[in-house]
Every structure is written in C-alpha cells, then in structure tokens.
Amino acid sequence: METAAGDDQMEEPLLTCRNVSKHFGALAAVNNLSVKVKAGEVLGIGGPNGAGKTTLFEAISGLNPASSGEIIFQGRDITRLPPDAVCHAGIARTYQLNAGFDSMSVRDNVRVAAYFGRRNRRIPGFRFGSDSDAQVREALELVGLADKGDELTGRLPVVDRKLLMLAGALASNPKLLLMDEPVGGLNPKEIDLVMEVTRRIVGRGITIILIEHVMRFLVQLSDRVLIMHHGEKIYEGSPQGLVHDRNVVDVYLGEGASQRLGALMQQVSA
Fold this sequence. Notes:
The chain has about 270 residues and is α/β, with parallel strands linked by helices. It has 8 helices and 10 strands. Helices cover about 40% and strands about 20% of the residues. The chain is globular, with a radius of gyration of 19 Å. The two termini are about 25 Å apart.
C-alpha cells in the first residue's frame, strides 16, 4: 500500500481519524482506519459498494458514532459529539440521496441551513435575519443557483438538487465539507458542472473529503486518494498511483478501468 510522502510529518492536521472502527454486531463496517487531512486539501475516497465509505462519513459527522477510535477536528475530540454539534464545530456534509424540503423554495431551503447550521437555536425567532440572507445569497451564487432561488425545490432537476445540497452545506460556513457521491446519476456535462463548482469551493479555502465512484471526478479533483475495501484502507496516496497498485486494480478498478484511468491521468498531466 502506497502512503503519501510526508504524511507522518503533516503538522496540525485539520482532521485526524485514529484507529476508527464501526461495528454492527459482528460486522466491522469500518475497521481500525486511520487517516489525516490537512487544511485546504481534497481527499478522495473510493472503493466497492459496502466498503465502509459512507459509514466513515457517518462516524465523522456524528450520525452513527464510531464504536472505537478517535476523531479529532481542529485539535478537539469530536468522536462522541451529536450531529448538530459537529456541524456547529465546522463540518458539513451532503448525501447520496437528494435531501431537501420539496414544498419550500430553493432560497428557503438554504435559509434553514444558514439559520440552524451555525449555532444552537434554543428559541428560534420568527425571522431568519439579514445575516442569514447574506449567507444564502453567497451560497447560491457559489453553486450557480442564484437565479433559481424562487423555484420550488421538488421541481428541480437532479443536478440542481445536488447543487442545492451543496449550497445548504456551504451556508453553515464549514471548514470541512464531506461530499458523498456528488455526481452519482449525472451525465458527463452535469459532472463537469459539479466539478467546476467543487473547484470554486476549494478556491474559498474549504477542505473537502469526497466519496465518488466516477473515477475521472475523483482523480481530477483529489490531492490524495484513499481506497477502502471491507472497511479497511487498502491504498492511500496520489491519484496517479492508483493504476499501478495491484491490489486496487484487482479488488476495485479492474484491468479495463485501470487502463482508461491511466490514459486519463496522462491527458491531465500533459
């Protein structure tokens, strides 16, 4: 297994997962996994279905806490924090399935995220406030939905619903964004659009961990790639190294996909 050069020397990583495991009875969905992510980095996670990728996200975001191990964010142990506290600490996420309030407008969906995503609201007010509205405008502009704020969420096409999830996550002002299969089900043109939006988000200094099966999306955006299988890390290193790792080719990519990915990487680096 390749390891990114200098990983052990990374100073004060933004996120550290140390020997994280998540068990469901006798099944270890995530098994003793360790990884560090530095500020400003894009870490791509791949692997077969059932590898434990989304379960790892659920442990980080507090939706399904780890059975053992530690998750440290900005020097703070967040292993046992509930999801709202993790969000308020600066970690936001999107989901494989399109989440949103279908009967509300695009703008109001993001307003809810901006209002509740930054701090506790023990006694919510009757209005969102001008500060929330400013955050909403910025988030919608960043993902390219500024002209669709009044549209009903339930009538949006799939790609716009994915972008709306991103806008809601961004409205909480995260330092770390977890993106779970952001281009699943999209056509090539739509994938390119989400790739452009993701690059704009990176340009804002937001650290990203993304899970994706669409390998051209994964390798073109990621600074580093982690491949999981049966809850364990089988590869961690550069996107270019994926096609040369025999274990990754055997259990995940296959020979054909490995060759196509190698050709893509040559085009990107040319």
